[in-house]
Amino acid sequence: MDDEKQQLDQTIVSARDRVGDRIDELDRRLRKQLDIKSIAADHAPQLVAGGAVVGLLVGFGFPKLFKRVIQIGLPVAVLAYSVKKAKASRDGADAEVGYGEI
C-alpha cells in the first residue's frame, strides 16, 4: 500500500514539474514575441517613412473623406492584422507545445 502511495506521489510531482516547465516555456516565448522595444527597433525605418508620408498628406490639406477613411479604416485594418497574426502564432504555439488537441 505504501509503495502505491509513494508511486502515486512521485507521478503527481513529475506531472506538476512537466506542467511548470511548459508554462515557463510559454512565458519565455510570449515575452520574446511581445517585446515592443525590439519590434519597434526592427521596424523603425518603416515607422519613420510612414509617419513622414502621413505628415506630408495631412500638412498639405488631405481631403476630409480620406481623413475619415484613415481614422476608421486604419485602426480596423491594424486590429484585423493583429488578430490574424495572434491566431496564427497561437495555433503554431499550440502545435509545438502539444495543446492542439485540447
Q: Please give the count of helices.
A: 4
Helix content: over 70%
Residue stretches low in confidence (pLDDT < 50, at least 5 long) are: 97-102
Q: Determine the structural class based on helices, strands and strand pairing.
A: mainly alpha
Strand residue content: under 5%
Number of strands: 0
Strand-and-helix sequence, N→C? HHHH
User: What distance lies between the first and last C-alpha atoms, to the nearest angstrom?
Assistant: 34 Å
Over the alpha carbons, how many angstroms does the gyration radius reach?
A: 24 Å
Number of domains: 2
Mean pLDDT, all residues: 79
Biggest beta-sheet profile: none
Report the principal-axis shape.
rod-shaped
Write a structural description.
The protein has 102 residues and is mostly helical. It folds into two domains: 34 residues; 60 residues. Helix content is 87%, strand content 0%. It starts with a helix and ends in a 5-residue tail after the last helix. 0% of the residues are buried.
Topology summary:
Elements: H1 2-33, H2 36-42, H3 44-59, H4 64-97
Descriptive labels:
102 residues, mainly alpha, 2 domains, disordered C terminus
In short:
The chain is mostly helical and 102 residues long.
